[in-house]
Write a structure and sequence with these properties.
Number of domains: 3
CATH architecture of the largest domain: 3-Layer(aba) Sandwich
Shape: globular
Radius of gyration: 24 Å
Number of helices: 14
Distance between the termini: 30 Å
């Protein structure tokens, strides 16, 4: 599962990529790009580490790809948009901070305008693909191997074209199972989840109504929104744990925005975490929402899935409240999950299986 980090020049992409992944962006033909893994900053892992004092801790991770800068001229963005086809979630970084020493390609800072321009380019990319596909279907009419399938696809694409012309993303277009199969391999961009990260200045942190104002300006797009000050996050990253807590408290912030960002990204990907704990390791394992217990065990090792017997689970909240697995069991809150049981976010699990 991959997130694509994209935006105009000078919006903070390279800095946030380094903060997330610990890697510097590379230069390819003068254009910054990069690929790296980002830790999901889940406070639950920290609490479990405090409880078990393990030799090793392993948080969940996500893959981020840093894409080259966008241009204000749409025709120059073709290669970048082609790369977007390979990501699962589009993470668009928009500049909100004011700084006379940092240029903006449009001459002034206007996040709403920049987001609108980007969104319109996503719509246009899908419209162009639909138009080209309809033209090809028209040329093939009469000798197509499966005339019925071609007719179904043409009718579907025509409806999708009308939907896109109404400036609505295909993520908000209802499809039947058969229709999904018809377009499953097509590189639509507006079917992807889009997260908009608003890079604000230090004096704008917690500014009343910014996210709500943006949501009101884009009511039908289904964007996820995160407000972050990349400058502040960079300062936070250089502090020790105790200094970090004091710094956040002075700013009136409960949690680093970078921590919130990774959690929102994780959720946007449709992922959840379950935990395995012990003196050797506390680890967060990544699975999709709705995963059944045997398949969740397979995330650890194939033998667990194939030889699955049951999963002994306790809820993270119960474990923290009671203080130990023994106390959770004594309270009658240890749950045995079988083959048809769904694993939930925050389950702390011990798998029983035989090879």
């Amino acid at each position: 599962m991959k997130l694509g980090l994209i935006g105009l020049p000078q919006v903070g992409k390279k800095t946030i990529f380094k903060l997330l992944t610990g890697q510097k962006a590379s230069l390819d033909g003068g254009k910054a790009s990069g690929l790296g893994l980002a830790k999901v900053r889940d406070v639950r892992v920290d609490r479990l580490v405090e409880m078990y004092h393990p030799e090793k801790e392993t948080p969940a991770k996500m893959e981020f790809v840093l894409l080259p800068d966008l241009d204000t001229q749409a025709e120059k963005n073709e290669a970048v948009f082609k790369a977007l086809e390979q990501v699962d979630v589009i993470c668009y970084l928009a500049r909100v901070f004011e700084d006379d020493t940092v240029f903006h390609m449009e001459g002034d800072v206007n996040a709403r305008r920049d987001i609108r321009t980007f969104y319109n380019e996503l719509l246009l990319a899908d419209q162009i693909f639909v138009e080209k596909r309809l033209e090809r279907l028209e040329k093939e009419r009469g000798w197509a191997k499966d005339a019925q399938r071609a007719a179904m696809e043409k009718a579907l694409l025509t409806r999708m074209q009308e939907h896109l012309e109404g400036e609505k993303p295909l993520s908000r277009f209802d499809l039947t199972k058969d229709e999904k199969k018809l377009i499953n391999s097509y590189p639509f961009l507006t079917t992807k989840a889009v997260m908009v990260v608003l890079n604000v200045g230090e004096d704008q942190i917690g500014e009343s109504g910014l996210v709500e104002e943006m949501k009101a300006a884009f009511p039908t797009q289904g964007f996820e929104w995160v407000e972050i000050s990349v400058q502040i996050e960079q300062e936070i990253s250089q502090l020790e744990a105790k200094e970090r807590e004091v710094f956040l408290e002075e700013l009136g912030i409960e949690q680093s925005a970078l921590d919130r960002l990774t959690l929102v990204c994780y959720d946007t990907l449709g992922l959840i975490s379950f935990f395995t704990v012990g003196e050797d390791e506390v680890r967060a394992w990544t699975i999709r929402k709705g995963t059944l217990a045997p398949r969740a065990g397979g995330a650890i090792h194939g033998d667990i899935e194939h030889g699955f017997i049951r999963a002994q689970t306790v809820r993270y909240e119960d474990l923290i409240e009671k203080g130990s697995e023994q106390q959770v069991k004594a309270a009658g809150k240890l749950v045995q999950k079988g083959k048809d049981a769904e694993i939930l976010d925050g389950d702390v699990i011990q798998f029983l299986f035989k090879v």
